Amino acid sequence: MKKKKNIDRLYDFRIKYSTEDSVGTDYHYYNCANAEQALSFQREMIDHKNWTIELLSVEKKNPYNNKWEDESEVLNKEGFENDEI
Questions:
Q1: pLDDT tens for residues 29-45?
Q2: H helix runs in the chain, sequence order
Q3: Are 65 and 18 in contact (CB under 8 A)?
Q4: Rg (CA), the chain
Q5: Do 16 and 53 form a contact (C-beta atoms < 8 A)?
Q6: What is the distance between the alpha carbons of residues 51 and 58, in angstroms, rounded to a whole number?
Q7: Neighbour tally for 45: CB within 10 Å
Q8: Which residues have C-beta within 8 Å of that of residue 20, sequence separation ≥ 6?
Q9: Tens-place pLDDT, residues 50-84
C-alpha cells in the first residue's frame, strides 16, 4: 500500500488595502496555507509592481461557515512595518 503524501491544506485569504490616490479600498485574494504566506505573496507583488499601498487587514475564509475571519495580527508581527509600503 502506498503512503499518502502529507499536503498542507490551502485556504482563501484576502488582503484589504488602499492606494494613495483612491478614496475606497480594494482586496487581493490568495490561496495559501497561512496568513504569513499570503502576506509574503502580497509583499512580493508590492515590490515587483512598485506599488505604494497601505495594507489594512488580512482575512481567512472559514470553509465550514463560509465567513471571513480576521487574521490581521500578522500585520503587527515583528519585522513588518505597515507605513505606506
A1: 999 999 999 999 999 99
A2: 35-49
A3: no
A4: 15
A5: no
A6: 18
A7: 13
A8: 52, 53, 54, 84
A9: 999 999 999 999 999 999 999 999 999 855 555 44
